């Protein structure tokens, strides 16, 4: 008899959700959060973000169960809004994936800088050149058909969890209530003032959403579950576990250092906090673990955007060239196209003071589009099938992601539209390859006009300093 694939129980599936979502962001979240919000506002922000991400996870779980015939996150947008909607979602997901690699590059170089000070903040010339070498090494490995092995994943998971657990334990022991409660709300008066607290929540939104990039993949694992009934429970338990880890890692530091001290820390902030608490060995441990962890994440995220463009080419949303495979079954052209664009963007980091935050802000802004399309299709599907509880999940999620696009800094979202212009050209070429003479409908043409206007506006905002780099 053929061997059956081992199915995941509720514990294993919950662990998968957590391990798949933990990335490099948590190692730097302490400093980024302190730059945006006081502890009280940060806690409220976590409640809001946790609710929004839960709506996304529940939508993905429901749609994956009800529409198992759809593959790829962009397929929901294509089914609900047509081929151009699928392209908009898929291109945003692809854009987010390789921009995430840029964030990985800057964080890795910052970690290396702890041992080799010449690397500075991770965005000087030697950092850029070193990151470029690794970037092309990733291209070579994935193009040769190398996939993330089980042993590599195990090593990476340990590298993530050991310093995290150590940090949280030491932070709890060293926690000072008087430091934490000093100006709890981060306002001028020291009291709760709605406008000032809400402003802090808005400023911290991009930081908080960045650490959840990747959860959409973990939430789509229902086909590997022992039974469908545990998928929703595992998703909620996994998200709860993530929120506990994220909240502890970002809130406990407020009781270790003042907000001003935290905001001035270099990256990865967790390493510098441990250094202040236990000495240089703590920082060394965090930075070594982070370098190994990022290498594995970078490898996975090199495969992800190439796989996305491959699937889009199969759906006739991109030219056939993107769907061509070499003898190792790797999409060489898709990989090369993505790597060249990543390389060009890496060099632009020479001109920014906050390379890491700039890169992850663009990455997160880009994926908002894909997440929004998921919740919108959840609304459409639930309405058509009269599933009213699921309809409200989609509505709440859609409202949240529309607000998140605006609240987290509309400039970053608009800046992503500049790359959409290239994508629209490729989409039009793909449609013509398939004999479609009228590529865009009247509504789609209006959307394109808004994309072009948004892209031009972002360039103006960039040169006038309205977009922080």
Automatic annotation (TrEMBL):
The chain crosses the membrane at residues 39-61, 73-92, 98-116, 123-142, 148-175, 205-222, 234-256, 277-301, 332-351, 358-380, 400-426, 446-463. The keyword Transmembrane helix applies. GO terms for molecular function: arginine:ornithine antiporter activity. It comes from the Bacteria. The keyword Oxidoreductase does not apply. GO terms for cellular component: plasma membrane. This is Arginine-ornithine antiporter. Keywords: Amino-acid transport, Cell membrane, Membrane, Transmembrane, Transmembrane helix, Transport. Belongs to the amino acid-polyamine-organocation (APC) superfamily. Basic amino acid/polyamine antiporter (APA) (TC 2.A.3.2) family. The gene is arcD. It is a multi-pass membrane protein. One of its GO terms (biological process) is L-arginine transmembrane transport. PANTHER family: AMINO ACID TRANSPORTER-RELATED, ARGININE_ORNITHINE ANTIPORTER-RELATED. It is found in: Cell membrane. Its main location: membrane.
